[in-house]
Give the backbone structure.
Amino acid sequence: MTDTTVLKSSLQPEEKDSTIRVALLVEYCGLFFHGSQFQPDKATVQRAIQEGLKQLNLETSAVSFAGRTDAGVNAQGQVAHFDVEQTSLANIADLGKALNAVLPDSVSIRGVHLDTGRQFNSRREAEAKWYRYVIYNAPMRSVWANRGASIHVPKALGAERMAEAARLILGSHDFKSFKDTDTHVTDDICNIFHAKVARDGDFIIFDVAADRFLYKMVRNLIGQLMAIGNVDNPLPPETILQVLAERNRSKAAATARPEGLTLMAVQYKSPFNFFEKDVYVQQFKNILKPMESLQNENLFRKAS
């Protein structure tokens, strides 16, 4: 027997959606969180933001991010989105300031864009991401250099050798050797637009930008770069290409600690470039300028 009640209901015109999609530009210190994504009974960035929204009496969808970050990993320019009833925002003059007033000091909203349109999805529409890994490379530790924004490596590292190896991963490669064994993603091809290692006094800074990154890929890459740069037992820069060719995680060096890693910025094309005036997004645009002529050849893929 046909359920005519259900059938009739399914044929009714859809009611006009009264919710809007909001985009956030988010900064956080990973030391205080068990990653960005929600985990039961653990402090996460998603939980912190959603609890902040509840304190403002806002009923929203789950907060979604441009990319997942692990426990200990920081962000300067993470992008998130959620849906909210438009009428519930009427009494909030400035959502960013209101959220920052109730959020913990370890997370901050740096930008808000209201009513992005339903087509916007912080993860799917991301075209490129920029990560930075910072090493404090000096014999003695520093109280200023090891508080979540960098790691301390007391043994000397050869930044020049690391920089040469980083240049070798530019372009499109299979990064299976540098993804975590727990991930089930089958597409291991990533296009690296920018990979640079530079020494600034006692700091070694690794900047890398790509259309997508595999799980723990950046930390695995920096682990390999540190092995190449180890002055006590140096490896040739070409080692990184040999490891890539192996397509075997066991052939690569150990994973670097998460504390030195920061998601600096996420790149979006118009009309979703809501935060293009942000200082880190501007820096990212400068990094990507050499790639602008290639965009017309459709070499950019959606970041994941």
Observations:
- The two ends are 46 Å apart (CA to CA).
- Residues 217-229 form the longest helix (13 residues).
- Strands lie at 19-28, 64-65, 74-85, 107-113, 128-136, 151-152, 171-174, 189-200, 203-210, 261-267.
